[in-house]
Amino acid sequence: MNSIISRLYFKRTLKAARKNKLLLFLGLVAVLVLIYLFAPIKTNFATSPQLFTMNQDGSSYLPASASGSTCSGTSCVFCDPRHLSCGSCTIGSDRPECGFVPPPSCVSCSTVFNYCDGSTCTEIVNRNGSCGGSICNIVQGCPDNSPYPNCSVPPPITSNPVPIGVHDISDCTASYGWTCDASNYSVPLAVHFYTDGGVLIGATTANIPAEPGVAAACGGFAAHRFQFTTPESLKTGTNRQIGAFAIDYPSGNNNPLLSGSPKTINCPAPLVNNASCLGVSAPGSVTVGQNFSASVAMQNTGTNPWNADATPHGLGSENPQNNLVWGLGRVGLPSQPINPGQSTTFNFTATAPNTAGTRSFNWRMVEDLVEWFGQTCQATIVVTNPPPSPTASISADTNPVVYNTATTIRWSSTNATSCTVSPPGWTGTSGAQSTGPLTTATTYTVNCSGAGGSASASVTVNIQPPGGFSLSLGGSVACNSVPLSWTASSGATAYRILKGSTRVDISPYQPYTALNFTDTTVSQNTSYLYQIEAYNSGGTNRSNALNVDTPFCPPTLNFSADRPSIFHGQSVILSWDTTYVNPNGCNASSVPNQSSWSGSKAVNGSQPVVPLPPPSVTYNLQCSGPGGTSPLRSVIINITALALPEFREIIPR
User: What is the CATH number of domain 275-384?
Assistant: First the structure.
């Protein structure tokens, strides 16, 4: 629109210039000012995808059948017989060879634009408002279905619809909007973003769920919103443009600048780090390896607040950077934020190096992963050698010891004035004491001190693990149980019953102190491995491994009828179920023989039969499996015969 305003203003200026050359000069200057102020997007987006042309009605399309698009200064002129009368087709386009020109301003609110739909011409006319220099508020797609016999323009191209959508907003965080393509509403479109000079700054996919209005515009598919993070490169403190282009599906040829695009943003320039040193507080002399307190005061003289965020600000060691001469290379902020102009003091504990000499104690501010900045706080500390350090040693005469027995603890020291052994509390720079009976591992520590500092040493007296023992069967192995028995292990406090190659503990409880166990979680004809683990506070000891094979279980059979007695001709239902039986391992018979109940039967089932003849029929069933044959099971069905009715001859009279 700004470009159209510029052109209209240019025409009026030329007209006035015929009367006054001075006005012509001033008019040209005014045109240049308007172009500068009201057409901020001078970019041609030269590297963007094939761009769009804006219809008078606000829709966009590619003028495939246009008579041509040409550049005239900063204007792009084209004619398209599909949508516009070629009498005055100076509509702004965004062809790659032309600069971006917004949609045209309203020239006449009664202008009618015709386009052809088959054999019918449809008019789109401004019905909603005034001009006043703004874009006509055209009601898009309100056909009157008025026939135009002289309509000879070709119909609109519908084989590859142009994407539609809106670039809603761009700010310093992100750009938002929606787009979809009638070629396939279910496909999310790619959206490319360009800035001043046609520079591609990134892309995203419009696949975020949206409100019902978007779904209504996109064939019922709502997942067509997009969000694109604003690049840091656009945050310069000046006006920058972001243009959003929908990439056509499936061809990628019709790629319009979305409605409402481009957007102008003005994001603050990056913040600047700087710091001034307010002073260092540290001792002038320390001994080798000594811990001491120090502090460094800094003032924020930059524009960037100091925070402990993803790129935290802190105090870093200098000369060289990140050195660990004083035991640490970084000190975190004591509080946050430290805003521009504010001061803070870093208090920390440093450790002197292990060699004597004069050392620099220098510190500087740093934003990790970003930069070092500001003044360096400098100091010098003299490191001296300390008096000889004490030494301490401690040992046990016997280690490990047998469960519930004692050993002797001995200790000694050098350069020490006092020593204490804990936990008993024995004292002296050297000595020996009995532990008394031990049932758990115990650690003894001697702490000694002297003019040169302190020293300590420790010894842990362990308990010997349980003694050896053996595992065997505790009885006969059944198809569903395995009895185990083992000898006692000396020093053991309890046992774990381990099963399988992975040694799963199947102990029913802990501590398990019995010397036998029966495993009832076994299956027939299966191999199992067992091992017993004895344990105490000193460790564990395992028995020999025992492999056990379980036998097949003998078959079981349940056989019944739904009723024991019937009348002649009635049926009964025989039912049976088994365990440990081979497939079709059941054999049926009957007395007297019933053809319906004989031969092989499934391992489980039911069957209706009609017993004949009275007074009874015995049904038999027997099943076999790997573990043997079940007992023969029988069901007797009693049959009551039906009495025949009496008949009389009736002689008619």
Answer: 2.60.40.10
